[in-house]
Amino acid sequence: MNTTVVLNLGVSQAAVATLATTLMIGLGFLRRPSTATALWSMAFVLTMITAYASISADTADEETARVAAIGFMFGAPAFIWSGLRAARGAATFAWVAPLQALVSAGVLVVLAGSPAYSTGFAVLYLAASAVAGLTGWELFRGPAHGGGMLLPLTLASGAFMLIGALVAVVAVVTIAMGPAGENDLILVRAVNSVAMIVYIICALVSLLFLSETGDDGIGGREGDLRRVMQDRLVRAEERDDVAWSLLTMTLDDVAEIRAAAGEGAFTSTMDRMTADARSTFPPESDIGPGGSTGSLLILVPRSENEVREHMRAFLQRLSTMRPGQPLAVQLSASIGWAPVREVGYDLEELITAAAKAEAEARDAGGDGWYRVGNTRPPLGVPRRPDDQTASSGSTPSAL
Description:
Elements: H1 3-29, H2 35-60, H3 63-73, H4 76-87, H5 96-111, H6 117-141, H7 151-177, H8 182-213, H9 222-238, E1 245-251, H10 254-280, E2 286-289, E3 295-300, H11 304-319, E4 333-339, H12 340-343, H13 347-363, E5 368-371
Parallel strand pairs: 4-5
Antiparallel strand pairs: 1-3, 1-4, 2-3
């Protein structure tokens, strides 16, 4: 394999990166401006700039500039990962991408032309592939109902990890057998170019889908919703107002329902669940997607007795069969209930506590709620009459 082939691959990569950048900015960021789409756009911009810089350096025979461009390109996957975290309302760690780009470029410039270059390249490539693995994990754990549209980036992230591991193995073998020859380095460059082209295309498909579906229609994007929730909790704490509760709720048997219904019917089912929540909880409540498929997150500014009645009304409404509903099954949900009186005013702590309580409700049979701070009654102890019928909005444990 000669350098002409590598240069041609570089030109192809630059062309694909240019098109992807244009589409991501035009159809992603400008149509749906958010922290997530901004970070994703930065990933494509960085890939495009470094691709052109690498071609120019190759043409001018500037080895230092070329390896610097490659190093900067290693920061692109971290921008995608940070954007996915922003999309689900978590801390973005946006500083990771520029730090990784700067460190990678600096290391490769220092090692350029030395026998240690191939080893340094392998280590940095492995680090970038590890971030791609984190991207795959974010897609796997995220609440988006993307189905097949998220598959390209998920698979590409997994392939990136495998290539990173392979490059690391090759580097170890090279160390054992002696310094890498020129043909070995050209081959690594070719593999890197092909992998980046595939990764760019797969990322574009999935991220454009996520940018289109980022607005769930129930109060804004999840990241914005959580910021609103935390702001409300801060102000409630300043007033010593304890009449606030955080609820997490997930459809029971969500995996089975989604598999049986397909994406279209499942999305309609979630729209109905969201509409039921909006109809039964107070208008001042903040309602948004939860941290997993088929879940909602609700911040309710009401006393505990009122919250209990709203949960009961929601479960009754959700379980009611209606003509024309997407699935001819009776729906139910498990709810985790975290009052600020028990947990405090930190949103992340409330979400964590509510999620654990939701798991308790699900373990107890679902179609009900579990409140943080409750103790499960011993086996054989009869429940209160209010706890017997799940369809009435019962709690799986003592109130």
